[in-house]
Amino acid sequence: VLQYENCDSFDLTETNNYLYSIFNKEFFQYKEETDYLKLIEDMALQIEMSGYGGDRYKEYVLQRENYMNTIYKKDLVSVVIPTYKRSEMLLRALDSILNQTYKNIEVLLVNDNDPNDEFTLEVKKRVERYKADSRFNFIIQDKHVNGAVARNIGIKKAKGEYIAFLDDDDWWESNKIEEQVKEIKKLDDTWGGVSCKFTLYDKNNNAIGKTKKYRDGYIYKDILNLMTDAPTGTLLLRHDYLDMTRCFDETLLRHQDLQLLVDFTSKYKLKEVDLYLHCVDVSDTQNRPDYSKL
Q1: pLDDT tens sequence across 86-121
Q2: Element (H, E) at 262
Q3: How far is CA 40 from the centre of its chain?
Q4: What predicted TM-score, i.e. pTM, was given to this entire model?
């Protein structure tokens, strides 16, 4: 399997037979060619566990990089931002992305409103100013479902080596992406992404709270125990690693961000950049849950 450099096609039956001959294990879960990356990662783990190690594992690392470079653009950061109803704060969020000191960025604004309602018309008017910017992509869904669906659509259309997220009422410090890309490039392949500290702001734009540094690593237990708070807006994740975990669970009414973070950090380590780079607006409650309906 490690000889494949062209990922357009390969024989899954032959692959399963090859794996079985080495590890006495059949990999029947790999039914599609798009599962190639997951397959070679699991192969690498089997190689490591079986004592092959060394050069074989290095081949896997190179193979993963070759695969990733065929489908994602190296060093490009894709920023997914869903918007639902409250477009009056959207421009602040978009400006904070497009004015980053790190310029190799694409923005995927996903309209989470029904395509012909008044909120979609309002969004279209507001984002007219960005049409000349080649980094800006406006995606209109066929219908409104929920934020998880909107974010997943953005992820599927993203072309970057890295994925970041931003809510439409929040914003970033201008060096957020630059600092995070710099940090993730220092880390080995056991690290799936980086986050950052964040500041809370009231309706008058006054800072009313700041987070503390949390523990790095496989932090899913800390998240479940509410010892760590890492909103999606703080994250910068390796795109191919996100492909190998669940994205946002579209069946959940709320807390899809928590679900994604638990899934991701149970498989990959997350490191927090020790800087306040994400800004959270806590004044707007429009898109917060009505708990009486949950």
Answers
A1: 788 999 999 999 999 999 999 999 998 888 899 999
A2: helix 256-267
A3: 21
A4: 0.76
